[in-house]
Design brief:
The structure is a single chain. With 284 residues, the protein is of the alpha/beta class. The protein has one domain: TIM Barrel, CATH 3.20.20. It has nine helices and eight strands. It has an eight-stranded parallel beta sheet. This is Amidohydrolase family protein. It comes from Streptomyces crystallinus.
């Protein structure tokens, strides 16, 4: 079955520093990661298409990602960043859509996990930006921590015309083995029809040196029960995943975790959900 990698990153440190790589734990990935390297890994694993996701809250990054996608048929979608609180956010989204590769803009994301206010998503200026994202026909990726999930629920209730995609399943505490209160919060979000979960980033939330597939299963099973395969998508989180596993290991782990599903359901998680949610078909 065709696989869509719905979440990965690329960066060139000569173009822009990635300040979040400053800690010693990030030494293994403190280097450039070009599209050529991604393509080699993806093709070796049978991945047919990918979605490139922003890494820094810098306005210049999104046009660069769009231009990169325009030059490579593997990268079918881009989840970029723009300032949701800016008065001209609607005009900026329209401008991005007209840039080279603008047709591949499929979503917007902000590093909400770094915001001190747990209800940042509910601020009036942010709400105006989320409405503009919906009007532009884009999805909104949520990169949040478990304590921020209640605000995600309320935001999704308020913006029912906007699809919210929960990156990394909301970063559950896999290393500790605790399931609650994360599971209840995820179920609350998944109860809303305009929400989707992303099966990504879990290996780096586990014990990176000693994780096993079974460590991830309670969290994936919770997500499958809550969202269903039709609202769950696979993402490698490459190259961040390299802190704990190779590209191929992450994909094989996902395949193992959904092995108990039927063929159609597995196809949804591994590709069809991302195709539909991000509207990847026919992206020029």
């Amino acid at each position: 079955m065709p696989v869509v990698d719905a979440h990965h990153h690329l960066w060139d440190l000569a173009v822009r520093d990635q300040e979040w790589l400053a800690g010693p734990e990030f030494t293994p990935i403190r280097r450039d990661f070009p599209v050529d390297e991604l393509r080699a890994r993806a093709h070796a694993c049978g991945v047919a298409a990918t979605v490139l996701v922003q890494t820094v809250t810098v306005a210049e990054e999104t046009p660069e990602l769009l231009a990169l996608a325009a030059g490579d048929p593997l990268v079918r979608g881009v989840v970029g960043w723009t300032d949701l609180t800016a008065p001209g956010v609607a005009d900026e989204l329209a401008r991005l859509a007209e840039l080279p590769g603008g047709a591949r803009l499929v979503g917007i994301r902000h590093q909400v996990q770094g915001e001190r206010d747990p209800e940042w998503l509910l601020r009036p200026d942010v709400a105006r930006g989320l409405a503009a994202v919906a009007d532009a026909g884009l999805a909104y990726d949520l990169v949040v921590l478990p304590h921020q999930l209640p605000a995600c629920v309320r935001a999704a209730e308020r913006h029912q015309g906007l699809t919210f995609v929960l990156d990394h399943l909301g970063k559950p505490p896999v290393a500790s083995g605790a399931v609650e209160p994360w599971a209840s919060a995820v179920r609350g979000l998944a109860a809303l029809p305009n929400t989707v979960g992303k099966l990504s980033g879990l290996v780096t939330e586990a014990d990176r040196a000693r994780w096993e597939v079974e460590d991830l299963r309670p969290y994936v099973d919770t997500a499958l029960e809550a969202f269903g395969p039709g609202r769950l998508m696979f993402g490698s989180d490459w190259p961040v995943c390299l802190l704990a596993a190779s590209y191929g290991e992450v994909l094989e782990t996902a395949r193992e975790l959904v092995r108990g599903l039927g063929p159609h359901e597995r196809a949804q998680v591994l590709g069809a959900t991302a195709e539909r949610v991000y509207r990847l078909s026919g992206r020029a």
